Amino acid sequence: MAPRGVRRTVTPGGYPRRVLNAAILINPTSGKGRSAKNAPRAVARLRERGVDVTALQADSADASLKLAHEAVAGGVDALIACGGDGTVHLALQAVYGTDTALGIIPVGTGDDIARGLDLPRDDPAAAADVIADGRTRMVDYAVINADDGTERAFLAVMSAGFDSEVTQRANTMKWPTGTSRYLLATIAELRVYKPVEFTIAVDDQVLHEQGMMLAIGNGASYGGGMKVCPSARLDDGQLDLTLLGRTSKFTFLKTFPSVFKGTHVERPFVHTLRGAKVHVEAAGQTAYADGERVAPLPVDVHVVPRGLRVFASVG
Question: Any idea what DSSP says for residue 222?
């Protein structure tokens, strides 16, 4: 994919160890206000470590994204997302296709992207130290192209079907937080949801299957640690698919707890596939990625191997 922003010069060994300047994108609502509370701590720590930090905060996602794009175009060494997976997802849209590194101060309710990168969670000073130390690694990201013209990158999981309906329901719930919210949303949605017909093309393989949900994982988990694609790795150049076939609601509820260990994929009605390019069709369904609404199906998804530099605790 052609670069979408300015190209920055990096040292032959990778990203410069010294981060000179950064912009931090703050979502004050993440983690029931924990982002607004902890952002000043992260900023203070970064400045204490000698990083020149500009805070970006707006009243809407569109305005925040505009500020993020302007910061990247202005040549910051790093764009830092202070919030949950939704904030990271927003920041990703400004940095993918450029050489600007992505930093994360994870203070959301799920923080699955940060979990996949082994970042300190709910410790903004420790997360800021990872950035100030210049500890980075190259990871894959995935790009969704929808029939309506939408293009969106994601780092963790894209979902469609029952899963998307649960996410939509969970996003409207004010209580409880974290994994419990997804559990209650799952139970509520299960009462009304019906299986749909999926057509899935993975590289050269085509599958027609009636099922409950489909998850396409660049990362392994979502929803606060639910390992829906347990074999997914952020740097293997592949996407992992988990398709939950048609089954009874009782069996679904009985199987649900096993998603936290990733052992649900051992069930006979759960199908797994891997590939670099995916096409998905299902009537009346919507794709969600990193917990955010993307576009109605059909969509095409492809992985960009090691196309993004991120700050991480391990390489």
Answer: B
Cα 288 to Cα 160: distance, rounded to the nearest angstrom: 6
Single-letter amino acid code for the residue at 255 = T
- Alpha helices (H) along the chain: 34-48, 61-73, 85-95, 112-116, 124-132, 162-171, 178-190, 249-255
197: tokens are 């017909």
Angle ∠(211,285,212) on CA atoms, nearest 5:
20
Amino acid at 97: G
Distance, in Å, from the CA atom of 127 to the CA atom of 191, rounded to the nearest integer, reads 40
**Alpha carbons 276 and 302: distance in angstroms, whole number:** 6
Q: Which helix (H) or strand (E) holds 57?
A: none
CA distance 130 to 119: 8
**Tokens 């920041």, residue located:** 91
Helix (H) or strand (E) holding 207: strand 205-217
Interatomic CA distance for residues 180 and 187, integer angstroms: 11
Q: Do residues 160 and 282 make contact, with C-beta atoms less than 8 angstroms apart?
A: yes
**Distance between CA 315 and CA 188 in Å, rounded?**
40
Question: Per the structure block, which two tokens stand in for 79?
Answer: 């764009």
Q: When comparing pLDDT for 242 and 211, which is higher? A: 242
Rounded CA-CA distance 82/24 in Å is 7
Please tell me whether residue 299 adopts helix, strand or coil conformation. Answer: strand
- Residue 10 pLDDT: 39
Residue type present at position 81: A
The predicted pLDDT at position 76 comes to 96
**3-state class (DSSP) for residue 189:** helix
Average pLDDT score over the chain: 87
The predicted model scores a pTM of 0.87
What is the pLDDT, as a whole number, of residue 58? 86
* 91-107 per-position pLDDT tens digit: 999 999 999 999 999 98
Q: Are 139 and 182 in contact (CB under 8 A)?
A: no
φ, ψ of residue 133 in degrees (nearest 5): -75, -15
pLDDT at 5 over 50: no
